[in-house]
Every structure is written in structure tokens, then in C-alpha cells.
Amino acid sequence: MEKAKKGATIQSLQIGFSIVDLVAGQGRPLKFNDIYELTGITKSNLYKYINTLTQQGILYRDRETGAYTLGSKLVEYGMAAVNRENVSERILPFMQEINRTCKSTVLLISWTHDGPIVVRMINNNQGLNIGAQIGTYLPLLSASGKIFAAFLEESLVRDWKLRELGKLKEERRKALERELDVIRDKQISFADEPLVPTISSVSIPIFNFGKQLLGAVTVVGFSETVPQTEQDELSRYLLQMQREISRVFGYRNQTAE
Length: 257
Known about the structure:
Blueprint: H1 11-26, H2 32-39, H3 43-55, E1 59-61, E2 68-70, H4 72-84, H5 87-102, E3 105-112, E4 115-122, H6 143-151, H7 154-165, H8 170-186, E5 189-192, E6 199-207, E7 213-222, H9 233-248
Antiparallel strand pairs: 1-2, 3-4, 3-7, 5-6, 6-7
């Protein structure tokens, strides 16, 4: 077999993937002429590309409308990629980098029926009591809890959220709902941790290709070292990391890139 040259590429594959990227990025079915106008590829060549992609299941053509969407084969590939490699293992190198940069404890939080739970921890200071360890369930008012309340599908969080809101006074509930709107917009959450005084946290959501919440990465430390606004330098760093981690799972933040 001929040894591949470093950096060598196959142009036809690049063009084919650019068509797939185009269909994926438009967020709506595209007809042949739509793709032609957006790509500028000659109609004769474009037909060959689209026909090949459709035959292989990469694209799907609706028989009634003639419009193209992503095909089932891509779903198979995506599921295989996720199932082969644990989400936690994919996120771990990013957590280690965040730990080195922030010099604070970093947690990976996942969802269960009983609420968000700590599933992984990189503890920068073994003597620091953050009030949580692996297996600890986190409350709604934690930075992590707010992430799940803001981004997870309502049907999944409803019972937990009702239980947690029942512990709060009406004024605090209203303030929290306003805060959740801000978190949805900024994609970052802050909290003075309710578990231990003098400890604060900041949390970022991790999304997949469908902007479904996979989990949250949370930085916990002494209040004076943990950022409390998105303008903070560490907050900007964490938002960049949020985009990089989510990109691993296929998420693309069009407004941020």
C-alpha cells in the first residue's frame, strides 16, 4: 500500500463533506437548487455528489418534496462514537486543563432522576471542604443545579425542580427564574454554594450536536478566587472551554464562532 503523504487530502471527499456540512448547518431541508446556489458546484458534478451521498445513507431525499436532510447513516455513526467512548473519559482531559488553569477543584456533574450528581472530581486541594464528593446530589441553588434547571428538558427536571422550589420563598423563586433566563443566554452559571459558607462555584453546560445537555463542568473554590460574572477573565476562559468540549460531541455554537 502506498504510504500516505503527511497533509495529503482528497479533494472530492472534502467537497462531499462540505455538502454534508451545508445541509447540517442550514437547519432546514434543502432542495437541489438550494444546494447548487449555496455551493456553486456545477449541476452535473453536484448531482453526482448528492446521488452518491444519498445512496450511502449520508443524505436523505424526501420523495414528496425532493428536499434533502441528513441521512440515518450519520445517526448510526454518531451513536457508535458516543457508545464506544465514555462521555466522562472524553471530558477528563479538559477538566485537567481547567484544573491547572483555575487551580481549583473541578467537578463533572451528570443528571439522574433524583437530581444532578457529582460523577468525577479533580480536587486541587485535598484539605478544602467543598461540601461535595463523588456521589453527592447537588441542590437547585448550586451553580450546577441551575445549569440543569436552565437547559435540561422540562419533563426530566419537573419533579426535582418542584421539590427544590418548594423550599424557597416566593420572592427567591421569581428571582431564580429571572436568573435562569440569563444563564440560558450567557451559558454560564454562578453561585455562592449553599453547602459550605465561603465556597463559591461557576458551572458551564456541555451540549451534544442537538444542543441537548450532556452534563456540566463546575469549578469550586474559595469565594475570592472563583469568578462571579461572565466578564471575569476566568469566566471567558471557561466559556471558551465550554465551546471546545461541546464541539467534541458535535455541538456548534454559530454565534460564538
